[in-house]
Amino acid sequence: MAVRFSSRHLGLLGTTLLGSSLMMPVAGLCAAVPTADTHHKKAKSQAVRNAAPAHAKDVSGGTDAVIVTGTREFGKKARDSISPIDVVSSRQITSTGQPTLRDALSLLLPSLTVPTAGFDAGALTDTIALRGLNPNETLVLVDGKRRHTTANIYADPGPSQGATPVDIDMLPMSMIDHIEVLRDGASAQYGSDAIAGVVNIITKKQDHGLSMRSNTGITSEGDGFQQGVYLDGGFNLNNRGYVHIGGDFVHQDHAFRSGKDNRTNQYTNQVLSQPEQTRESVAITAGYDITETVQAYASATYAHRHAESYQNYRLPSTLSAYPGYAAKYPYGYSPILGLEENDYELTAGFKGMLAGWHWDLSTVYGRDFDRFDALSTINSAVYKADGRTPTNFYNAQGYNNSQWTSSFDLSRKFNFSFWPHSINVAGGAAYRYESYSMGTGSADSIAGTGADGIPGTTTYNAGNWSRDVASGYVDISTHLMKNWQVDLAGRVEHYTDVGNAKTGKVSTRYDFSPRFAVRGTFSSGFHAPTLAQQHYSALAVSPTAARGLIAANSTGALANGASQMKPEQATSVEGGIIVEPIRKLHVTVDAYQIDLRDRIQPGGTIYGSQAYKALYANGFPLPSGSENWGAGQLSAYWFANVATTRTQGLDINATYPSEFGRFGHVDWDVAINLNRTRLRHQGTTTSGANLLTIPTLAYLTTAYPRSKIIFGGRWHSPNNTWAVAVHEIRYGQTTSNLTYYTGPNAFSTTNYREFQNAPKWTTNASVTYNINTRWSATIGGNNIFAAYPSVVPKENRYLGAPKYYMSTNQLGIAGGYYYLDVSARF
């Protein structure tokens, strides 16, 4: 159960005005005697603060919450929104019992999904996806400002392939006040990436108090132990401002779910596992009234993550030619991919009012650096050269991603004699500098073919790339009639590497009565190819196979029909109703269609000798004998504009409170997402070959669940001493096309098994006891009956270990999770 407390002085400055979040009215900041002069000053100060979200009260979520995302108007509730939006409070997040924000949101929002599991480095970044689209198509904001993305590209097969999303778990959960999820195309309002929607994380800005929380849990298999500790508190700055500081410590152990290794008939291969990680994060927000009409604000976040992920097990026989290593690994070895990640972001700005205009000038710099180490492995080339037997190869790979955005926003509400309704006019401009780099690995990690399983980055792959992005937008909203509102937005962006993008959005809503309304949106959107998608390259090596990802503009890719990537372009249509059929029963139903052109995914896959030549031309160190590997063992591909798809879906949300007098009350809720993506057009190489393979087509169209349903209720005792919550989640079917590794079709590139991961039901339950006004304790479980994904047939498991298919966004592999949560507030 989350601990929340009110602030005497609502957050002053924390978020931006336009294209960003807005502050609600602030009260009690000036304690002067109310003379006529001070009344005038207060009125001006109050008008300024109306442009920033305050958090005097706990945001409870649901339709009554005041929103700041997807609108330029002040004080609008989610229920009155012109676009569909979910508001998730910190109380709801912590009540899930999950120690990470990503996993908590996946239990609350049906339109949001997370990977079933992760491969290699992909397992070490926490990604989220909205409405069955790649994580790159979801824009993440923090206090209305674009958050920088991770440097760790998800390069492994699956629906998240190619994503370099915002890792939302690098922000301390203790500092989150609430989250607003806009389920609507919003590129015209917020820029690139807002195709599936926008996730706006609003941080805490209270100026007093202290809260503490501890979360301890373990999986149903007795492994995967997790511990989280969360602290935050606020300070008053002379009744003119605030400072709020928070931090998290989260540790997670491995949870092993591999099947028997075909080679040993033992559980020696631990490749299918939840990674181990330890994460420390801290954040600070601050604001101060410089004058009655000008405010300064700032924030900073820092996080460090250490994580480890297993690679496929190597047999002792592979070391017969290297007695020095054989002595160190008499029972074989499993290479471990280690990550040391440092992530930070700094924000500073001023905002205020001038001549009736709300203005906001800000700058944000964010950076993520990932150092990958090859641990518990070998490099035979080093042994052959001088007889040394290093087993840990630090600094094997290094990636850096940075983003610096400066913006100026304006907003004003006009009233004209010729128009009976006010007109809100907003506009602004921004400049963003983006950079991405890949560093050369240490000498031992790149010698020969590199550290086994995790070869270091060679000089052929390393490099530094950057680009500039300039943008401008305008947004106009008004009422055409008393009950008919309309919002028009347009944006122009220029990228120095991929050119220009123009987007627009028209939204409208008509309220027939206080209990029934309709709304609709037509918008265009875009996602510019990231620098990582354009330039990243790497080689993944397994005991008997290798897979290379080469840059689209590299020699090997161009020789096989690659071409320069273009931005993805989207056209979205949305329509819905908001209805209260009976008192207190609030229902929203929203249907949507997203046509996405020039989708960026892996394409142009080549095999066998053709792949060998392309990899060799790009300077990759290939294993000895790989020039004779077959089509199913050696492959290479690059990122490309592979297809045009159409995604159609339906979101249904309903809430209803039931009062039972002396037996307490129950808050009921139901949320449903139905989603389907179909291929409309497949891209080709310059030589006319299809860019998609059968498996990669499935990643686009059927790797996300066709449906996700969450329903249940939370009972509170009359005095709120006890609370009991029970929710069911149903994950719809996913379908994949799997490679055969044994039998007559082994390693075939034309014959695949259509594998259906059947629908799954899970039950989440918790019991909370409020010990007193300060302390509370919760015991609970998620997926308490330990459901798992469908088991993969043995002939489709590489080396036998991955008994659950990882390349989907359905139910996770960990099984049940049981926890104890204790929290306090002072």
From TrEMBL:
GO terms for cellular component: cell outer membrane. Keywords: Cell outer membrane, Membrane, Signal, TonB box, Transmembrane, Transmembrane beta strand, Transport. CDD domains: ligand_gated_channel. The keyword Transport applies. Residues 316-784 form the TonB-dependent receptor-like beta-barrel domain. Residues 78-198 form the TonB-dependent receptor plug domain. It comes from the Bacteria. This is TonB-dependent receptor. It comes from Gluconobacter cerinus.
